[in-house]
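Quick one:
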Amino acid sequence: MGGFVTAARLRARGCSAVYRAHGPVALKLACLAAPAAELALLDHERAVLDQLRHSGLAPRPLGHDSCGAVRYLASEWRSGVPLAHWLHEHGPVARARTPETAELFAAVAGAVAEAFTRLHEHGIAHGDVSPTNILLTPDGEAALVDFENARPLAGPAGPARGGKVTRLYAPPELELLPVPGGFVSDGRPTAASDQYAVAAVLGQVLNGTVPGPRSTVDREALVTGWPARSWPGLAPVLGTALHADPRLRHPSMREFAAALEECLT
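Output:
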């Protein structure tokens, strides 16, 4: 298909699938008979990857075309460990107090926050922040994948409806509509919605559970035990990012990242 030879199917649902191809290459497919909105998401993701081609944040697009009964998007296979796998292997950092554990959390939190800061500085909101869509790379940085829900922070909004969204990390202001196999977002992701989701992911890395929206009265419950004693400023920093009202979150991802760095060092 377009010169790419599939090696393993990673995911299939409905009329779409994701394969690992030799190279290695990531290959997303959608049937040409699929609804127009589904094909539009694949075309949109290709445009986002083109925009991020030189950023180092996202896979470089390698090809996009129709072949037979399908449309495909080929992109480079990014080396790295999905944060979901890292969490499964290491467990929540709050379970074990060691200097290495504390350093690991600080490094992961810093890398993830920096990746989304840079993404926003490129003018894009990701729209589906989750541990599965964040890769921890061998050089200690974070890279991002799965951009079908990404939208520009300014200008035209792109496709009217996004693809599947990981509900656990979605902020309350995004309207999620149930569809077979999950949920889709009917709202436009923003820098504030990404910030909320990043804080939810980091809360899970810290405690093993995904925190919900916070108010000023319950945010201290976010960080307890040795992390609370080691990083007394962490609860208010995460709590602000998780505020139910997006207007009361940190003014930007850059400011959230800076507040995280300050309280973790």
